[in-house]
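Slides due. Your pick:
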Amino acid sequence: ITAAAEAWARGAAALPKPWKPQKPVLPVEGMRNVLITSALPYVNNVPHLGNIIGCVLSADTFARYCRLRNWNTLYVCGTDEYGTATETKAVEEGLTPQEICNKYNAIHADIYRWFDISFDYFGRTTTPHQTTIAQDIFQRLLARGFLLQDTVEQLRCENCQRFLADRFVEGTCPFCSYEEARGDQCDKCGKLINAVELKNPQCKLCRGVPVVKPTQHLFLDLPKLEERLEPWLEQSWATGDWTANARYITRSWIRDGLKPRCITRDLKWGTPVPLDGFRDKVFYVWFDAPIGYLSITANYTDQWERWWKNPQQ
């Protein structure tokens, strides 16, 4: 408090000169380098005040604070554009998924500009960089034995001639009997659901009754990572600033034992899977979307790895 009072008494003229980073903003040796991301907003809607307050505004406030502290700061964000929600919206509006993405990316960008959100770069996930980086990560996982293949019982709509990904099917939740549960989770009780467990399932496109059929998919072999993940978590909890909620959720996952997680989907709109036997599939959006933070930075600067693979700075 005394230091703040003295600084106030000295006036603005005595403050350090504001740091003006070069463009593009890159880590600087000897400075505090801060990379900030907002959760990528999904592209199938118009953002409202709650969305902005929920993640964008808080990150923007922190970015402004960091710049006032003369920390070398990069703040990036962008729209999350792949997955079934985009395909569903495209069907609703009679547009292609790409047209939906172009339309809503522009709306999002305009709204954030209107709010004067101080992004250094606002991008999107439907880019060549996204494909390159996501497929590279996939190939590395494959080469290191962290992927496995399995047969999955999946709902197929014979009328639409397609397997139904999570959001293309709805029915009654097997846990709480909510009648509008999706094929991946119930919005009422919050439980994760396998689509074939739904009671009275319906295809959201034609309202037909789907049938259960087998299909091949690729899984991230999370149990293989458990041994090296646990010591890393202990160290990270001890040295980092995890919230109590984040610690609790992570501990519950570890306590229950990690399960293999499916990372492919029978869809057209997504990053293609670069493996024979799976080239008609795309990556599941929750495998693909977090990689968007990297690819958006790569669209901002070809030296993106200096931010994402540079723990020393």
